[in-house]
Design goal:
By secondary structure, this protein is of the alpha+beta class. It has three domains: 2-186, no CATH class; 187-254; 258-362, no CATH class. It is 40% helix and 28% strand. It has eleven helices and 13 strands. The strands form two sheets. Strands 1-2-8-6-5-10-9 form a seven-stranded mixed barrel. Helix 6 (257-277) crosses helix 8 (309-325) and helix 7 (287-299) crosses helix 8. The longest helix is centred in the middle third of the chain and has 52 residues, at 202-253. The termini are far apart.
């Protein structure tokens, strides 16, 4: 796990080349407080982490302090050979010593911007390092309770920052001051969350940004699901309306007894009329098909090619009238015979004449 702790420096001086050098207290033993989000425990607000003397001053840990790159604030990633050139503003020296509860190392700032920031008051330090965290409750020999123990500390870089977790004793400057050091004096960021302005650490801000994005994604997903549900309901309502309309039509199409009697009579009359013209079996045919089959039988397919239903019905009526004038049928029925229509005309003239005078019959 990667950590950042912040501290200060004393005894600064400028070299002939303009570099800034100093001996600095950069790390200490004891308890330091982290937000739960920094340690992968967002459910905890704060975690008190104990850095035992045996871990802070372990030989394997101290060997990682020399020649570490200096950076201006913490980079977003660990410093290594691939990014050192773009991130480094200086480096630590080789003489690492113990100073009470502190680790002291020499350092040099070589970057003009970092030196300008130092002169403007940006003088505290923060160690960027990796360590193992063992979450276990306990109490130090001094009687201070803790929630976790830090082990296997390995230094990656030293950052120049505005405020340090280790307190102002970890400071670049000519005078060392103390403030009782176990505070959360980390560099804070201001965030606007749900209309409220809050201050939190960089790690806390990252946790808030992550949770805010998750909340936003959840809201988008909820809206998508709600829209899909509404669309599904709309579709089902449309289907139900269509079924209701179909049911209404079916109900409307049901015949009363009187209407059924009338329909039977009309059907029988049509079949009788068709049989008078062309004696055939009309079982199972619709009224329109009966009329059409009669006209085709008498006049041929060409007579109705491309013609409307109304035209076919009219031709059927003409053929029915002609059947009553047929001399053979007059002999059979006792009805008087009249002149038969010209076969070349196929009844077209009479159809058009009847259509033109239909308004007179309507009166």
């Amino acid at each position: 796990m990667i950590f950042t702790d912040k501290v200060s420096v004393s005894g600064t001086r400028r070299t002939a080349d303009g570099y800034l050098v100093a001996d600095v207290r950069c790390a200490r033993q004891g308890i330091q407080v982290y937000s739960g989000a920094e340690l992968g425990r967002p459910e905890k607000q704060w975690v008190r982490v104990y850095r035992p003397e045996s871990e802070v001053f372990a030989e394997d840990s101290l060997r990682t302090y020399p020649y570490r790159p200096m950076t201006n604030d913490h980079p977003a990633e660990a410093v290594d050979y691939t990014n050192w050139k773009s991130l480094a503003t200086g480096q630590t020296g080789a003489e690492v010593v113990r100073d009470g509860e502190w680790v002291r190392v020499p350092m040099i700032l070589m970057d003009s911007k970092a030196i300008s920031d130092f002169e403007a008051g940006k003088r505290e330090l923060s160690m960027g390092y990796s360590a193992d965290i063992e979450f276990t409750d306990g109490v130090t020999e001094a009687g201070e309770p803790y929630d976790a123990i830090q082990k296997n500390i390995r230094i990656n870089h030293m950052a120049q920052v505005s405020a340090g977790r280790a307190g102002s004793q970890a400071r670049i400057g000519d005078t060392i001051t103390t403030n009782g050091g176990h505070d959360m004096a980390d560099a804070l960021r201001k965030l606007l969350v749900d209309g409220l302005t809050i201050e939190t650490t960089e790690q806390g801000a990252q946790a808030i940004d992550k949770l805010t994005k998750q909340l936003s994604d959840a809201q988008v997903n909820a809206k998508t699901m709600a829209d899909a549900h509404a669309e599904d309901i709309k579709k089902r309502d449309k289907e139900l309306a269509a079924k209701d309309d179909e049911i209404g039509k079916l109900k409307g199409s049901q015949l009363t007894d009187a209407a059924l009697d009338q329909r039977v009579k009309e059907r029988a009359d049509l079949i009788a009329s068709a049989t008078r013209i062309v004696d055939a079996d009309y079982t199972g045919k619709s009224d329109a098909d009966i009329r059409k089959s009669v006209v085709v039988a008498k006049l041929g397919d060409a007579a109705i090619a491309g013609k409307s239903v109304d035209y076919i019905d009219a031709r059927f009526d003409i053929l029915l009238e002609d059947s009553a004038k047929d001399p053979v049928r007059q002999h059979m029925t006792g009805q008087p015979a009249t002149v038969v229509h010209d076969s070349k005309d196929n009844g077209q003239s009479e159809y058009e004449n009847r259509k033109a005078n239909a308004w007179k019959e309507a009166k």
